[in-house]
Amino acid sequence: MNPNEALRLTLHGSALAGMDSRPKDVLRALSYQAEDEGPEAASLATEQDFLSTLNAAHSSDQLVELWRKQLTKWDYADTPTWSSTERRTDDRRSAVLSLLQLSGETQRVLNSLIPVPKESGAVVISEEFTPWYTPQSQQGRSWYWPAYRRLLAEKGWPETAIAGLDEASDRVVERLADPTSETTYQSKGLVVGHVQSGKTANFTGVIAKAVDSGYRLVIVLGGTLNLLRAQTQRRLDMELVGRENILRGAAEYESDYSDDPAWIQGKFLSHEGMPSALGGFDIVRMTTRNNDYKSLLQGIVALEFEKQEPALPLHNPRNLHRSSARLMVVKKNKSVLARLVKDLNKIKTPLGEIPVLIIDDESDEASVNTANQNKPDAERTAINDKISELLQLLPRAQYVGYTATPFANVFIDPSDSEDIFPKDFIVSLPRPAGYMGVQDFHDLDSPVSPADRTIANSNEKAHVRNIRLASNDDESALQKALDMFVLTAATKLYRERNGLGDRFFQHHTMLVHESVRTADHRELHGRISKLWWNSGYTGPEGHKRLRALFDDDLAPVSRVRSDGFAVPPSYEDLSPYVGAAAIRIGGDDQPIIVVNGDSDLTAGGDADFDKRPIWKILIGGQKLARGFTVEGLTVTYYRRRTNNASTLMQMGRWFGFRKGYQDLVRLYLGREEATSKSNVIDLYEAFEAICRDEETFRRELERYSELVDGKPQVTPEEVPPLVSQHLPWLKPTSPNKMYNTRVVEIRSAGKWEEPTAYPTEGAALRRNTELWTPVLESLTDEPSRFSYTFDSAGTHHSFDALTGSISPGDLLHLLQSLKWDTPARFAPHLTYLEEITRSSPAKVDDWLVLAPQHSSGNKRLTIGASDRSLSWFSRKRRREFVFGAISEPKHRAAALRVAGTLPQGGNATTEQHVAARRGVISLYPVVEPDQRLDVETSGRIDPGKIVMAFTFVAPASALGSDGRIVRFTTINSADVEL
């Protein structure tokens, strides 16, 4: 940086520093700062200089980053006094730039370099609450949140990410009870994140803001394993508690982190003195990294809360804000929690005066009561019973659960006041930037047809590799995974040498997960050890395999997905790094770490990523599941079976942040895993199903989070109907955690709806076919070509379809007459269709009927005595009477355009059918596998053997009169008792 650049940066930094409260005339501020910097500063304090610098700048230049940080703060500001515009909108940015009094051209260039951050924020489903947590209420009291915010900035977090965390944590804290209130209220909530996506950062922010506002006892339930509890303790100590609160006057070498590299390198937060001596308050640790809560005399004394004014309760502001906070991270263990309950009963401070925050990490594990309370003499399960006891003991306790798999929590009986149902709020955190989640391994609803998918446009082709074994002794897939682990290790070393710098990749790991049984781990350790030592990575055979894998897999993927990181032009350029990679992994003769309780398999050491760089193969089961972050995970070999989505999702340790190596990530998945002698499951299909379950749940939460007339559409008690299940054998969570609710109406204006539960009885199928036959007979003789072009991707969807029309009244009568094995499944949709048809004025004028036809002319049939020839579709029921998807993705865009959901798509045929209040019905004659041979032979089918499936898109304008999207009734034990 030359002297002018440094001086310009100083001027702008000083000018913006004086605008923390509001944006002001920036040119005046620059001129004022230039007066103190000498005559050479005057020319750098002009708009012309600023504009020319911006025109030549990159988005990562220091001056741009300085402005990005300040503009982001103004973009995210909540109800500022200087503007009435909504946060994170073009209007807000326009208001900011106007107050800065910049010209239109400078504003345009600034906006192109620093776009308005419009990513989705946290989604909230909540009861109405009394606002108490405001910027005004926290003035002069914040200590730990500003310190945490500063630490994140020093770690390199983008300002947008910090602002997003600030906003999301506000949504939680504002829904807790006011800790200074005379009235006692116990709030219970749930925060839903993504697996390994930063939930800990959110609850660290929540704790920081909660203690700043007056919460004085924080209990973090840190998982069921010592490993997880210690990991959470360290994170909070390093980023929230700080060095001074840890040492409390002791020498550095006496710290429980004295051997921790991050402690030695000064990476733990420092307050530059005891907070209480600097105008803040201290945090007293009741647990340490190596010690869970223990029932000791000094522990009991430490739990006593000091009152500056004994006549007033602790929660009075005159006592509360002069008292230290207590923090403990405890394992979900019956004995540990029992000790805590026992000690709380001994302290002199009245428990009803203590504002308490309980954070339950992985709240759907162990915390949920799985004992059926409707059975005689039923008792709560151990951990749930102790949490319930804590909540009863501490009337000012607030409970916030955190999980990526929330289904068990929302299925809790909401009428059980002693349980942990999130009665007050559910907050769904947005997917963070740079996060590699389950969607990044699948091609959900991709507009690209399977035949046209490549490593460039298909996540599956880029990252997923199939495990299909010829026999139990077939090690070919495991060998290939090991080879990929070494190859990606060499590529990381190559990238360090070519731009990223030494030790950029502190960790490089491979996870092998086949079973939770330690005996299986022992056998697997032997197999992998043998493969490793026979792989010959520095010899000709090893190089031959690696070269083939580089040419066929790694290089093609990285060339199109490396995101600018270095890619070796050829294997010859990479081969010098292979030996170094193999030595980093196995140079100590211990390439494998087994993470379980087997003391005979600990030669590889612990998987403690905090204390040393780890380039190893990890074998494990349950300990490598919930909450445990496997750092540097690049290659996964996964064959573990389970029967519920929550458990399977938590096994996905390959989700997370993969800076610098996302293109190198590979997932080897079992596609034909036997669960019994007669049953085989596809784990990729299973993960795709839970991905759809999760995305559907989050999408539904987002739909219903919008307020109507300032009031919530739904409350947490009404959330269970939003949970779905896509595979028959893969339930959302354990059956003993599931709770039932009945949906009354689903209003789906402009949405593609696809019923999939059709009858199986011949008489019902015949009846349905007879109802649809007049509609089929009325269709055109020749098909029309419908198409739609997506401007953003340039993707083109087209298909042929016979067309027709049906009046709203006739369609409603037909749908009301259809037979279903379970009518309740379609009833919520039927209620909505009745409402838009019978309302005055009606919200639908007519329905376009489409019967998609195969372009090849194959798969045609006639039904019964009819002469009408139609395309048929082969579909298989996945469970009981329920099909998977009926339609094809290419059929949807044109229908959505006709109904008014999508903008113009460039096809004349499609456009001529568009009308303001027109809906679309698409018909699919479905032939099931056991009827397929007869149809292919004769070209004809009996009406009682065909499933007349259909989809519908109601007009996008057909919204409910009250703005609500869903109506339903909730079934809980309180209703049953009545």
Task: Briefly summarize what is shown.
The protein is α/β, with parallel strands linked by helices and 978 residues long.
Q: Would you spell out the secondary-structure blueprint of this structure?
A:
Layout: H1 3-17, H2 26-34, H3 47-55, H4 62-76, H5 90-99, H6 104-113, E1 123-126, H7 144-154, H8 159-173, E2 188-192, H9 199-213, E3 217-222, H10 226-241, H11 243-247, H12 261-264, E4 283-285, H13 297-303, H14 317-320, E5 325-330, H15 334-344, E6 356-361, H16 382-393, E7 397-403, H17 407-410, E8 425-428, E9 435-436, H18 459-463, E10 464-467, H19 476-500, E11 508-513, H20 518-533, H21 540-561, H22 571-574, H23 578-586, E12 592-595, E13 615-620, E14 633-638, H24 645-650, E15 656-657, E16 666-670, E17 673-674, E18 680-681, H25 683-704, E19 741-746, E20 752-753, H26 762-777, E21 784-790, E22 795-806, H27 808-817, H28 827-838, E23 846-853, E24 860-863, E25 870-871, E26 873-874, E27 877-879, E28 882-883, H29 892-898, H30 908-912, E29 918-927, H31 929-938, E30 940-941, E31 947-953, E32 966-970, H32 973-977
Helix pairs in contact: 1-2, 1-4, 3-6, 4-8, 7-9, 8-9, 15-16, 19-21, 19-23, 27-28
